[in-house]
Amino acid sequence: MALKIRRKPTRAVRVGPIQIGGGAPIAVQSMAATRTQDVDATVRQVNLIAEAGADLVRIAVDSKKDVDALAEVRARTTATLSVDLQENYRLVALVAPHVDKVRYNPGHLHHHEREKAVRDKVAFIAEQAVRHNVALRVGVNCGSVDPEKTAKFGADDVGAMVESALEHAQMLDDLGFTRYVVSLKDSAWRKVVEGNRRFAAARPDVPLHLGVTEAGIPPEGVIKTRIAFEQLLAEGIGDTIRVSLTLPFEQKGEEVRAGRQIIEDVYAGRFRSVPEAFDRGLNIISCPSCSRVENEAFVDLAHDVKRMAAYAKDHDVTIAVMGCRVNGPGETDAADIGLWCGPTGVNLKRGPELVGHFPYDVVLERTKQLLDEVIASSGAARVRAGP
Hints:
eight-stranded parallel β-barrel, TIM Barrel, 2 domains, 39% helix
């Protein structure tokens, strides 16, 4: 039975040929996982994702060489493009001419040119967006909120995330720039639901981009995302979505198909029954592989970790497998075991503490040893009876 869902009346934001918010159909996004400087591979993947039905395809840019490659990609595809800025916010002036939308992370602004006020950095980004006729996304992640808000909110990381998003929305409004959307993401679906509900209550006019970051490997990654999206979309919250999955490069179109299926199911009234203990026991978090990944072996390693750790399914253990230096350090801190993958080896962590740096062909065995140690400790209680 179809649901009568009344979407929140957010304002319309034009992103190239598409509209986000303002009653437009929910847009579905994905992100290229190839190295941006490999232009042939990136163009091929952008087109693969677009052909899978994506309304918008995102690319990461972290250097002048990436910008040069982006210009070539733009010339060779008609896809609607978004770009993901890292800590060097000034790159916006170089990338904006080639894309339809730019995403910046408020937490990353804190770390670059620390002597300069964040408001001045936001003003520079907004100025370039106006000059080049592009939209913006304020993309806040629980794992990378600036240290001042983390200190202020302590254990309430959702509160820190929401305040950061509200603060940046107000900055842009004060600058007279309203062509933006906001995202509030975490790898925990409950935090995604809570954060987006709180932001939507405070700023119902701002279009929201929904996503569970580092959702992980299918099918669990799809299920985590579906649970969050079912609740938010059914409440009329959400104008564009991204399903973030750890997939081989040739399968990135599955993110788009999964997103469209979730939207279709929610509006048709088809909801997944979630067992009470769904988010208990072994939890594998892994990022969706993007152009920031420093070694493609990361994808295979994530799948190997999942297979290796299956014997621990009945224990409350979180393992995070992250593919780059941008999200790797912070996102692994909160996990029981973290694997932060670099170009030639993997930083293995227990919580925030570094255990060691290991080659890719060795780290799986060492991870199993560490997992056994964690299970033996009181912090990895058995949550249900085994067979």
